[in-house]
Amino acid sequence: MQLKIAMVHIMDWNDIRFVLAVAEQGTLQAAARELGVNHTTVWRRIQALEKSIGSQLLIGDRQGYRLTDTGEEVIAYARAMSANVDAIGRITSGKTTEMKGLIRLTAPLLMASQTIPALVQEFQQQHPAVQFEILSKNNTLDIERREADIAIRATNNVPANLIGRKLGFSRWSLYAQPSMQVNTSSLEELAQLPLIGYRDFNAPAARWYAQQFKGIPKAVTCSGIETALACAKLGMGIALLPHSGTEGLQELYQLPDEFGAGIWLLTHKELRSSARIKAFWDFVLEKNEQQSLFTVG
């Protein structure tokens, strides 16, 4: 036990978080993306840490990196440290009463590019001392770990530890450029036309689409909704898309609501008392009530 305590004392938290990132992400490249640094920086910091404590923490193989027995013990302490650091950050941010500072806002890519900028602009006209980071990611950032302060997410499963308000509902349909002159809504007949596919997209609607048109060659395959939308607007094929941003496209077939999702405004309960976060939270709710910004389809 004394050795473990001594080891933790001589470690720098800034070094430990590099080991934690590799342990959670599996590779140097993925950890580097998570931390926003070069992968050589990640490797250099881990090597320096291992040298300082005189023990190997990670072992590399063809699949990536795995923890040694010592690494497992260190990571257990590191995760506890990370949780405590994040909790301190939430509590101190949540007590802020001044209308200034940074708000990290995450939303799906389409929403972040089409709806969020105008909201942020209008809010900053009223509160110019508030800065924003707009994190346009489809994967869920962790509010617990302060990766984001406020999230707007399409989901049917709101985490119990977050405060949430439903903003609307997102539906999915099959769309085509009118120039394709599609005059049918029959799935069997649509399967005979050029299709735009997805890769590594696991939403319920995407799973339905993949099963419905299984084995049919796709004219083009995309890794995200944004690219599929752009391809559909160019008339490259029929695409499965949420209703947001599909102006100018022809709706061919609407999926049942069971494949849709509620659109939620989310934050951590400890951040809700922050003046700037509460003000933006209330601002989004008010604007949505006036303009139904997040009710699509």
TrEMBL record:
<dbReference type="InterPro" id="IPR036388">
    <property type="entry name" value="WH-like_DNA-bd_sf"/>
</dbReference>
<dbReference type="Pfam" id="PF03466">
    <property type="entry name" value="LysR_substrate"/>
</dbReference>
<feature type="domain" description="HTH lysR-type">
    <location>
        <begin position="11"/>
        <end position="68"/>
    </location>
</feature>
<dbReference type="InterPro" id="IPR036390">
    <property type="entry name" value="WH_DNA-bd_sf"/>
</dbReference>
<dbReference type="InterPro" id="IPR058163">
    <property type="entry name" value="LysR-type_TF_proteobact-type"/>
</dbReference>
<dbReference type="InterPro" id="IPR000847">
    <property type="entry name" value="LysR_HTH_N"/>
</dbReference>
<keyword id="KW-0804">Transcription</keyword>
<dbReference type="GO" id="GO:0003700">
    <property type="term" value="F:DNA-binding transcription factor activity"/>
</dbReference>
<dbReference type="GO" id="GO:0043565">
    <property type="term" value="F:sequence-specific DNA binding"/>
</dbReference>
<dbReference type="InterPro" id="IPR005119">
    <property type="entry name" value="LysR_subst-bd"/>
</dbReference>
<dbReference type="GO" id="GO:0006351">
    <property type="term" value="P:DNA-templated transcription"/>
</dbReference>
<dbReference type="Pfam" id="PF00126">
    <property type="entry name" value="HTH_1"/>
</dbReference>
<comment type="similarity">
    <text>Belongs to the LysR transcriptional regulatory family.</text>
</comment>
<keyword id="KW-0805">Transcription regulation</keyword>
<protein>
    <submittedName>
        <fullName>Molybdate transport repressor ModE-like protein</fullName>
    </submittedName>
</protein>
<keyword id="KW-0238">DNA-binding</keyword>
